[in-house]
Structure prediction request, 221 residues.
Amino acid sequence: MGSCTTWPRPLHILPPTNTCFGGFRCCSAAPNGKSKGNQTPQLLKIAVSGATEFLRLISPAGRQRTVLVGNEFADESPVSNIDDVLSVIRSDYEKSYFVTGIFTSAIYAEDCTFEDPTIKFQGTELYERNLRLLVPFFDSPSIQLKNIEKVLDSGTEFIVAYWKLRTYLKLPWKPLISIDGRTIYDLDAAFKIVRHAESWNISALEAVIQIFTPSSETPRR
Prediction:
C-alpha cells in the first residue's frame, strides 16, 4: 500500500431502516445522484457486461465447486460482530478467493451489491457464477492481501482491504493483469455484507488495455 496511491472516496452504506432506500443509503453521492470521482464510460461498462456473459456461455467451469464452498459454513454459528466478519474475510484472502473462487458466501447477504470500476450487479449467487467463469482463464494467479482493517466513519463501521492482484490470462498473447486495489465491505445490522465495492489504482480503460497488451514475460509454473 504505497503512500503515492490515490484512492477515490468510497461510498458507505448505512443500514438504519429509517433512512435507507432499498436497503442502502449512499452518503457520498453527488447532488445529481452520480457518484463522485472519475466515472467509467457507459459504453465500456456495456462491453464488459457483454464479455462477461460471453465468458459465462463458453466457460467450462462447473457449478459444484463454489456451491460446496459456500455451503461449507452453513452449519456453523453465524458471525456476531464485525471482528468475526473481518476474520472470515482474511481467511478468504488466504484462499485467494479472487482467483480461486473459494470464498465464504454465508457472510454475504443474498442481495449483496458487487461493484468494481467496470461492472455493478446484485446477488451473491451471481458473484459466485462470475468467479467460476473467470477462474479457468487465469494463469499463475496471485493476490496479496496488504492490509485489512475496520474503519469508523460517521458512526458506522465497515471493513476495508487493500490488495495486489497479478495474473496472466490464458490467451495467445499471454497478457499480464496487475492491479493494486481496495475493497470496501459494508455490513448490515446482522453483520452480513451488503456491499462489496472495489476501487483500483488504474482506470477501467487501463485495465481493459492490459487484457489486449502482449506480455514480455513468461508465466511462472
